[in-house]
């Protein structure tokens, strides 16, 4: 076979021969085409969709950004968190407070993200000494403390009375329509995704993945575990704070009851169902989280009253879906998507054994 810079087989398996190929944003020209087509579709969506559906898409973008924040921490750095509602709340309340006091939108949003990042560093200092369940409990405790602060610090948060959030004003233009806010959320999401993609292909991102796979191996290669874990917490909290600022404008009124551990569990379910270790997984998980309440509301009309009127129906379905994903498809919706792509790329010459689940090992089992 004649040497070439980029060799592929028929199924588009890329044989990398240059380092640049390993850090490209897009693995092949086909990905550029499809992502460009997707970008054109979302940019043109306001010309074809009603305001209600644009509002739902705005929620999808905000949830995607929140899921991206947790994906950085849990999916790439391997650190579990059940306290991300606190970071979202810090960004939301601070952004609302600064906006009400005359600070422009972009600086206010960035301040909310930076203060959330500082909160992430504060919780990371003691939390990085813990692992697994203990780390989850520590972040959950932090979330409970922050929720109590939201309820008591009435000068900033309004306490249990809540606080109204003004309409976003960008460069002197008030975004009082769903179309303007839709484009704002889309632009911020795209910028954050590109930022995370560039971070993941840098030495920092590679260090996070090494820590996730094996802390002992990462440390043996000279990776400073405490520093990179703290940076992962700060980056994740910053993105969550930015998502919180957009979330505040979307709902229009903030109360402490919004930022409970239930919100953190929903975010954790988002990344688990979407697929850990994949930015696509954050998007898939957000789609699932936005569509499922609507589907449950439709399902209530067809269920017997004894079941359909149960207030615990929605959490029960969430839990059932999460259990099924863990048992049947641990890689989530992104893993299922990759399998479907691979199936059609080899059809009709595929091998059924290719799709059999392989045994996976816990980190403690790998060390035996």
What does this structure look like?
- With 368 residues, the protein is mainly alpha-helical.
- The chain has one domain (49-356): ABC transporter involved in vitamin B12 uptake, BtuC.
- The protein is 69% helix and 4% strand.
- The protein contains 17 helices and 6 strands.
- It has helices spanning 19-23, 29-44, 51-76, 84-100, 105-127, 132-152, 154-157, 178-200, 203-213, 215-220, 225-251, 261-274, 279-300, 305-308, 313-328, 332-346, 363-366; strands at residues 6-8, 14-16, 163-164, 169-170, 173-174, 253-254.
- A two-stranded antiparallel sheet has the order 1-2. A two-stranded antiparallel sheet has the order 3-6.
- Helix 3 (51-76) crosses helix 12 (261-274).
- The radius of gyration is 22 Å and the shape is globular.
Summarize the structure.
Helix content is 69%, strand content 4%. With 368 residues, it is mainly alpha-helical. It has a two-stranded antiparallel sheet with strand order 1-2. A two-stranded antiparallel ribbon has the order 3-6. A two-stranded antiparallel sheet has the order 4-5.
